[in-house]
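User: structure tokens for this one?
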Amino acid sequence: MKINQNLLIPSLRTKKSLIAIELLIFIIINLAWVIIEIPRSIIPFFLFCWASLRLRAMSWQKLGLRMPNHLIRTILFGICLGSLIQIIGLTLIRPLLDRYFGITSIDPRDFSLLTVSVPLFVLVLLGQWLLAGLGEEAVFRGYLLNRITDLVGGGTLGLLTSIVVSSTLFSFFHGLIGMPFFVLTFIIGVIYSLVYILTGRNLWFTIIAHGTANTIGFGLAFLR
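Assistant:
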């Protein structure tokens, strides 16, 4: 018996049981990395999301990885947002979190590689733009937020749920370094999610903002 793929693929896009299984796998892998404390990479998640999209005959372009209508404005907006996030995070949010949750600093050895040489620092920056800027935004905002919305609905409550859950998993992905860092990454995840939704679900706004924020952070670590 021949299966009509034109009927099968649309059903896969909206089949909530399949979406729930995919999200459960995503959550298990994410939490396992935190518990086992092994080096994390966005690549397995990206490949998992890519396979899920292939199953539904969907593309990353549909989730927001498409050329923005106003490229220069998008770049400037992303740079300004990423810079603002770093400034507010360093001068306001992080000190408040440290005050109320206790001081928890990131181990300087985590950034020791950045200070070896300028060429290596540039290579690390290029890698973070590809893996953190592009990869994490495609996975957590482009894929995960939309899959959760497909599961719980696209109303106000559904969107809030999608933002909170995806931002929580975004925080877990970065590891349990301490409560201040966890809350800070959660807040950043919420900001990126809101920007993604309010800009018509175009990923380039958050990709550029994410890459800019990390570049500033790595730059400060390099100059220490």
